[in-house]
Inverse folding.
């Protein structure tokens, strides 16, 4: 219909309104929607008033027509697979949607939440949304819900994660709310009951088995519905989400990137979810595009669990282990900024070039990691760690990176900035710079060491020869690295592990994150843990992990050999 419904005022419906409502309620959704176009504003007001009187809500006519609700009441359009999801919830108690990246899954899940909350009388139905983390509930799902309710003029008051409406007595009742539960807190999902219950699980791939099992008890009853939607997990074979999708009682609607409009060629209508002030654009522009797919396959490799999950929407199985699972990297990238008094935002320190809103701790140690492009190829990258905060500071590609003096000059500039920051934060340790010491990097390290002796800086310069032995060994360790490069990757694996030595805030671009989860984890004939070489990564079409290794170098503390850095005259 794509025209706004009239406001529903408190009124008694006339005979015509009651008759129209009765006839429409008995018709199929398709017949209803054709008839809607013949109603003028006065007739609509009568029908909605009759629906309020007879069914307890003006939106009762859309109880079996969520597609019509989104289009007629919300005035929005959807693409084909989103319509499939909406239609499936009418006749199926559980619908699971393993989805690729950028398919609009949270968008459509929020529309389901709004539909299920208003098509039944307040107090007789409840919509519950959940996700693995509170931030997903508060900052992704519920902003969608608030926006939709406000724009469509729907009744009630929507808070951060709760929606209340007046019931027929005039008392406010909760019609929808959102929560997140710790992995082992099964009590968090117990005791949820309502005559009609809609349970929406966003980012379902991250739901743990204990919470998932507890949900099974909630999802009982003839009038209970559940929508489980999210990316398949990249590193949890046999996850609760996968088990649920294998349940014959669950309708599964997978969405691959190749199903989405910009890759399938499906034509979409104009987007009506964005503010009216936004330039006119098609719905498809909000979805995944070919460039993202090509970049992701190049950075991870076609056989990577990340690609299987987020491109093909498949549950990865039996693949070779990755040095660092993608979900660990994502967790570090999504970690919240600390709000304790000991932290301050970089941009508030008054230092040139420090414009980041990320927060750093007073007294934190500062370290730089430098991956030098070999012979000007690949990328020259500098990463910086300030305590638990890791950022990318510089990345370039080109022949100018083949000149060690030019490269050393860029590193010196970052050393100078790091020393200013260390002084401002009151750090007690000197800035420490770890440089990939192979080829050109050895000369860059030599120049920086010479400039240190000349008084241009006071940082510690450490050339890391990736092929060298680690200089230390732990016979009891499960993963025993053979070289410093292997040790460097395994050290980062330990830092990012959910059960690791600590947490990191990784503030790096998508390519850096992709590179961190690209190399495979192998074991050689001596029983040592080996990280897949750059040469073998290139053979399978994966780009060199230069950005990732700069980040790793920033955090890595190698055993320093006695070999002196050669000084270039």
């Amino acid at each position: 219909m794509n025209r706004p419904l009239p406001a529903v005022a408190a009124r008694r419906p006339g005979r015509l309104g009651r008759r129209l409502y009765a006839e429409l309620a008995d018709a199929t959704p398709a017949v209803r929607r054709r008839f809607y176009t013949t109603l003028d504003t006065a007739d609509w007001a009568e029908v909605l008033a009759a629906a309020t009187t007879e069914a307890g809500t003006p939106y009762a006519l859309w109880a079996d027509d969520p597609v019509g609700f989104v289009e007629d009441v919300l005035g929005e359009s959807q693409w084909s697979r989103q319509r499939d999801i909406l239609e499936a919830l009418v006749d199926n108690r559980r619908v699971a949607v393993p989805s690729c990246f950028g398919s609009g899954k949270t968008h459509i899940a929020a529309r389901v939440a709004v539909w299920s909350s208003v098509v039944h009388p307040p107090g007789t139905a409840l919509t519950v949304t959940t996700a693995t983390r509170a931030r997903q509930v508060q900052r992704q799902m519920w902003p969608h819900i608030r926006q939709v309710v406000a724009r469509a003029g729907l009744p009630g008051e929507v808070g951060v994660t709760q929606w209340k409406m007046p019931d027929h007595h005039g008392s406010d009742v909760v019609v929808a709310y959102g929560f997140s539960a710790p992995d082992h807190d099964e009590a968090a999902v117990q005791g949820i009951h309502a005559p009609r219950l809609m349970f929406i699980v966003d980012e379902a791939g991250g739901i743990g088995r204990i919470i998932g099992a507890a949900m099974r008890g909630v999802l009982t009853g003839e009038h209970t519905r559940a929508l489980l939607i999210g990316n398949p997990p990249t590193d949890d074979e046999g996850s609760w989400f996968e088990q649920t999708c294998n349940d014959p009682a669950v309708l599964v609607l997978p969405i691959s990137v190749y199903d989405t409009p910009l890759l399938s060629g499906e034509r979409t209508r104009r987007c009506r979810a964005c503010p009216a002030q936004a330039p006119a654009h098609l719905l498809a522009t909000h979805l995944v595009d070919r460039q993202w797919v090509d970049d992701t396959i190049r950075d991870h490799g076609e056989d990577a669990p990340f690609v299987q999950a987020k491109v093909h929407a498949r549950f990865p199985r039996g693949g070779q282990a990755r040095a660092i699972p993608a979900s660990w990297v994502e967790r570090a990238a999504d970690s919240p900024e600390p709000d304790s008094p000991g932290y301050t935002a970089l941009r508030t320190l008054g230092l040139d070039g420090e414009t980041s809103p990320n927060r750093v701790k007073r007294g934190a140690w500062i370290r730089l990691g430098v991956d030098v492009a070999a012979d000007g190829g690949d990328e020259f990258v500098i990463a910086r760690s300030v305590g638990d905060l890791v950022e990318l500071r510089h990345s370039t590609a080109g022949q100018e990176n083949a000149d060690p003096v030019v490269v050393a000059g860029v590193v010196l500039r970052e050393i100078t900035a790091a020393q200013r920051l260390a002084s401002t934060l009151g750090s007690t340790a000197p800035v420490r710079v770890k440089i990939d010491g192979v080829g050109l990097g050895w000369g860059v390290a030599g120049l920086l060491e010479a400039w240190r002796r000349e008084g241009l800086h006071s940082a510690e310069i450490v050339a890391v020869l990736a092929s060298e032995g680690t200089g230390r060994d732990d016979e009891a360790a499960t993963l025993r690295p053979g070289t410093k490069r292997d040790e460097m990757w395994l050290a980062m694996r330990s830092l990012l592990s959910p059960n690791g030595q600590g947490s990191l805030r990784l503030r790096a671009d998508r390519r850096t994150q992709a590179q961190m989860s690209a190399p495979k984890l192998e074991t050689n004939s001596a029983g040592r843990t080996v990280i897949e070489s750059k040469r073998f990564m290139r053979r399978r079409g994966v780009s060199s992990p230069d950005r990732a290794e700069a980040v790793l170098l920033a955090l890595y503390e190698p055993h320093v050999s006695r070999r002196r850095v050669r000084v270039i005259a």
Remarks:
- Residues 1-55 form one domain.
- The CA atoms of residues 109 and 348 lie 38 Å apart.
- The chain has 19 helices and 18 strands.
- The first strand starts at residue 94 and ends at 98.
